[in-house]
Each structure stands twice: as structure tokens, then as C-alpha cells.
Design a protein that fits this description.
Elements lengths: L3 E4 L15 E4 L12 E10 L16 E5 L26 E6 L17 E8 L1 H4 L13 E4 L18 E4 L8 E8 L11 E5 L4 H7 L1
Antiparallel strand pairs: 1-4, 2-3, 3-4, 5-6, 5-8, 6-7, 7-10, 8-9, 9-10
């Protein structure tokens, strides 16, 4: 997938096909100034999943897109590749993964504040059988999604508004490569709520689609 970036489809529909409006920066940490580590690319293609119908259909299933960069990515100390998981691989409950993003740090949906520096949160996988319960996400969560978060109110952490499209990465072992198992998709209003873990598109459910696009 050299030259491709995996994203959710939360691209503004009216601008998604206007490639000249988009730029992708890698090796970025702080949004307030230009960093020596960053490498920015124009975008030569955006490929949204053809079955993504939200908000016409009240479901965010198929929330995935690929972005083709106009150039090859050269690894550095700040830029490296993450692998894709095996087709249909499902993570066990309790597996710790990491989500990153510049999303809201306040939890105030009416007045969100984008982070200046990249944030990271460690989240355990919530089993699908738990996440689909009526007191959790019920019918809104699909088998093509991953739920991650703590179930005890005192431990609640989550991604937030503005983090959508960011990666959920995991390692099998400390020496194993990082794998992009999820893409931030949705969560509760206000970001943190008991029994409402963060929900991610499960990358392993879309391996055939990804391979077909690239």
C-alpha cells in the first residue's frame, strides 16, 4: 500500500472529488507550526466505499476510504509503515490497542477544541457480543466494526470529535510490526459515556475491497 493512506469516509461530500483542495502531511505532531519531520503530499485519488450511504441511510457501516498520495513515502525516524491485519482477523476482548488524533480535548460537542499536539490513548477491545448489547451500542454496531474502551466509569477514555479517520493500531508482541486494525468511526455525543465505547471500522473486514482498489 505504498502511496496509500487508509481513512474513514468522513470527507465532506461536496469536496471529496476536488483533489486540489486536499493535502496529506506525514510525520506531523504539532498543528501550530511547520516541523522539520513533516512531509506533505498532494492527493491524486480518493476512493470511498461504494456502499457507504450515511446520512441517507442511518448507519455508518462501510465507513472506509483510501487516499492515494502523489508521490512515494520514504520512511524516516518519524514516518514508518503500519501493516494491514489478516483477512477477517478479529481481535480478542481485552487486547490493548492505541488510537491517535488531533480531535476535541474538551468533550463539549457544542464548542469543541481541536488539539494542537497529537494525542494517543490506549484502549482495550470490547468483545462484539458485549458491544451489541442493548445497553451498549445495540443495532448500531456491526460485525465489520471494532469497539474499544473501558467498561468501568472511573476508567473511561475515548477518541473524540475530530479524531475520525485516524488509526487504531495494535501489536501481536512487543517485537511484532504495528498493524492498522481499525479506523476511528463514531462514538457518543460528548465522547465519553458509560457503556458507549469508541467504535472503529474493522480493517480486516475490508481486505478484499482494499486489494481491489490498489
Amino acid at each position: 500500500m505504498q502511496g496509500f493512506v487508509n481513512k474513514c469516509t468522513n470527507l465532506p461530500p461536496r469536496y471529496a472529488d476536488e483533489l486540489q483542495r486536499w493535502r496529506m502531511c506525514l510525520g506531523k505532531h504539532n498543528l501550530t507550526y511547520t516541523e522539520p519531520s513533516e512531509r506533505c503530499f498532494s492527493v491524486s485519488g480518493i476512493y470511498r466505499h461504494e456502499d457507504f450511504k450515511y446520512p441517507t441511510v442511518p448507519s455508518v457501516e462501510f465507513d472506509i476510504a483510501l487516499v492515494r498520495l502523489d508521490g512515494d513515502v520514504i520512511p524516516s525516524d518519524e514516518i514508518s509503515y503500519a501493516c494491514l491485519p489478516s483477512k477477517e482477523e478479529v481481535l480478542p476482548g481485552g487486547k490493548k490497542c492505541y488510537a491517535t488524533g488531533w480531535g476535541d480535548e474538551t468533550g463539549d460537542s457544542l464548542d469543541p477544541k481541536v488539539a494542537e499536539a497529537l494525542n494517543q490513548v490506549a484502549l482495550p477491545v470490547v468483545p462484539y457480543e458485549t458491544c451489541k448489547r442493548m445497553d451498549y451500542w445495540w443495532f448500531q454496531v456491526k460485525t465489520s466494526m471494532i469497539c474499544c474502551g473501558f467498561t468501568l466509569p472511573d476508567d473511561l477514555k475515548s477518541v473524540c470529535q475530530g479524531d475520525s479517520g485516524g488509526p487504531l493500531v495494535c501489536q501481536d508482541t512487543l517485537s511484532a510490526p504495528w498493524e492498522v486494525h481499525g479506523i476511528t468511526s463514531f462514538g457518543p455525543v460528548g465522547c465519553i459515556m458509560n457503556k458507549k465505547p469508541s467504535v472503529f471500522t474493522r480493517s480486516s473486514a475490508y481486505i478484499p475491497w482494499i486489494e481491489n482498489v490498489i
